[in-house]
Write a structure and sequence with these properties.
The chain is built from 16 helices and 7 strands. The chain has about 325 residues and is of the alpha+beta class. Strands 3-4-7-5-6 form a 5-stranded mixed beta sheet. It has a two-stranded antiparallel ribbon with strand order 1-2.
C-alpha cells in the first residue's frame, strides 16, 4: 500500500482564529487530534491528510460552521506553503504554475491534485483528494478547491472568477460563503469536484512574474529531499480519482497525463509492486464505500461517479470484489 498522504501544517495556520470567530473552541479538537497549536506555524512540518479531514469536518459539524473550508481559504496566503509559494507566485502563466504544483507536490500537500481537461474554449479543472476512504471529505474538498482558485487569482488578478464550480457533496444547510467566494454559480451533488473557466486563462501572461526570482526559489526547493520512489503509485491513484467521473480512468489516459508511454508507466508500477488494474479497482472500491454511505447519493449516481457504463455493471463488479451488494452497505 502507498504511504499515507500528508498536508503542510501551515495550511491550518488560521484554523484557531476562524473557529474562535464562530464562537467555537478549536484547541480541544486540536489536542484530541494530537496536534500542538504551535505546530501550525511550522512550515517544515506535515500532518496526515486523514487527521486533517476528521478535524475539519468534526469542527464544522460541532460548531455549525458549514463553510469552514472556505473561511480558511479567505485567509490563505502564499506564506502558508513556504518557499514553494514564492515559486508559484512568480510563474509566467497559470499553466506553468500548475506544472510547478505537480513538480513540488511532495513539499506542499500530496493529498491534492488538479487534472485539466480542455475542450475548444472551455477548460475544466477536476480536483482529486487522496485520503482514507473512511474520512469525511467535505471541508477538505472545499479548502483544496478554493486553494487552486486562489492560485488563479494570484496570477490573473483578484477579480478573476471561474464560470462554474462543482462539488460532489450536498449543499450546506443555511447561508454560506460559497457564492461570494467563488463569484459564480456553485453546483452541489455534481458528478465531480472542480471548476470550469475560459481555456485562454491558462496561458495569459502574468505581468508580475519575475523569472530570476522564480529560478532562485526553485533552486532552493530542488535542494530539499526529493519524492519517495513509491510516489508514482500515489500520483496514479490521484489521477484515477480525477478521471473516473469523466469515464477516462484508463491506463492510456493516466499515462498521457503523466507524459509517459503506457508501457513505461506499467513498468514503474510493477517496480513499486503494483498493477494499474488493481489500483483502479482499489480506488473504485474505496470511493464507492465513501459515496454509498451518503444517503443523498443514489446507486445510479454512484455508478456514474465511478465511471461505470451502468448501475448493473457497478453492482456486479462491487459484489464480485466485496462479497456484498452496494445496497447492503447503504445507511438504514
Amino acid at each position: 500500500m502507498p504511504a499515507a498522504t500528508r498536508v503542510r501544517a501551515t495550511a491550518l495556520l488560521d484554523l484557531p482564529a476562524v473557529v474562535l470567530e464562530a464562537g467555537g473552541d478549536p484547541y480541544a479538537a486540536l489536542r484530541q487530534a494530537g496536534i500542538d497549536p504551535a505546530m501550525l506555524a511550522r512550515a517544515d512540518l506535515t500532518i496526515p491528510a486523514e487527521t486533517v479531514a476528521w478535524l475539519l469536518d468534526g469542527l464544522a459539524e460541532r460548531h455549525g460552521i458549514a463553510d469552514l473550508g472556505l473561511r480558511l481559504a479567505t485567509r490563505r496566503r502564499l506564506a502558508n506553503i513556504g518557499v514553494a509559494g514564492l515559486v508559484l507566485g512568480q510563474q509566467s502563466t497559470v499553466r506553468a504554475a500548475l506544472g510547478m504544483v505537480e513538480r513540488y507536490r511532495h513539499l506542499m500537500s500530496d493529498s491534492l491534485s488538479l487534472h485539466l481537461r480542455e475542450e475548444k474554449q472551455v477548460a475544466t479543472a477536476v480536483l482529486s483528494l487522496a485520503i482514507g476512504s473512511s474520512a469525511p471529505q467535505r471541508q477538505s474538498r472545499e479548502l483544496g478547491l478554493a486553494a487552486f482558485v486562489h492560485l488563479f487569482r494570484l496570477l490573473l488578478g483578484e477579480g478573476w472568477q471561474p464560470d462554474a464550480v462543482h462539488f460532489t457533496h450536498s449543499a450546506p444547510r443555511g447561508p454560506s460563503l460559497h457564492r461570494r467566494f467563488f463569484g459564480c454559480p456553485v453546483h452541489f451533488d455534481a458528478p465531480f469536484d472542480g471548476f470550469e473557466f475560459a481555456a485562454a486563462d491558462l496561458d495569459r501572461v502574468n505581468p508580475g512574474a519575475d523569472t530570476a526570482l522564480a529560478s532562485y526559489a526553485a533552486g532552493l526547493l530542488d535542494a530539499l529531499p526529493a519524492q519517495q520512489p513509491g510516489q508514482v503509485v500515489t500520483t496514479v491513484e490521484r489521477l484515477i480519482h480525477a478521471l473516473l467521473p469523466m469515464g477516462g480512468a484508463s491506463l492510456a489516459n493516466v499515462a498521457r497525463a503523466l507524459g509517459r508511454h503506457p508501457r513505461t508507466l506499467q513498468r514503474e508500477l510493477a517496480a513499486a509492486g503494483q498493477d494499474f488494474r488493481d489500483l483502479l479497482a482499489g480506488v473504485r472500491d474505496q470511493l464507492a464505500n465513501t459515496l454509498l454511505r451518503d444517503p443523498g447519493m443514489t446507486v445510479d449516481a454512484v455508478a456514474t461517479r465511478l465511471g461505470y457504463a451502468s448501475s448493473t455493471a457497478f453492482i456486479r463488479a462491487y459484489r464480485n470484489r466485496q462479497g456484498i451488494t452496494p445496497g447492503q452497505l447503504r445507511p438504514r
